[in-house]
Design brief:
single chain; alpha+beta; OB fold (Dihydrolipoamide Acetyltransferase, E2P); 2 domains; four-stranded antiparallel sheet; 4 strands; flat
């Protein structure tokens, strides 16, 4: 790991959330206390049984820390490319529906 880039020490806090959606590869969780929502791959969850919507999960976490002012242009480029592809596909779907 690259912990030397972090300037603040860990402040581990206990969090809880409720499963709100499960698909083939991920689980979506609403955080208790109106703290938000997150979606993570199923492989990141420790489960004794198959997870179900409505079940509660608990975990320890820290706060995300900005690593610096630089923007990773590769990621920005990929995000913009994906958005353009999505818009293009939406346009194609709308054109197919109009022509029917």
């Amino acid at each position: 790991m690259n912990n030397e880039r972090l300037h603040y020490g860990d402040r581990i806090i206990y969090m809880e959330g409720v499963v709100v959606d499960i698909d083939d590869c991920s689980i979506s969780v609403d955080l208790k206390g109106r703290l938000g929502f997150f979606k993570a791959p199923k492989r990141m969850f420790i489960c004794d049984t198959e997870p179900k919507v409505g079940q509660e999960f608990g975990w320890n976490m820290s706060f995300p820390e900005q690593l610096g002012p630089e923007v990773n242009e590769k990621y920005v480029s990929n995000i913009e490319k994906e958005r353009r592809n999505q818009e293009k596909m939406r346009g194609q779907m709308e054109n197919k529906e109009v022509s029917k």
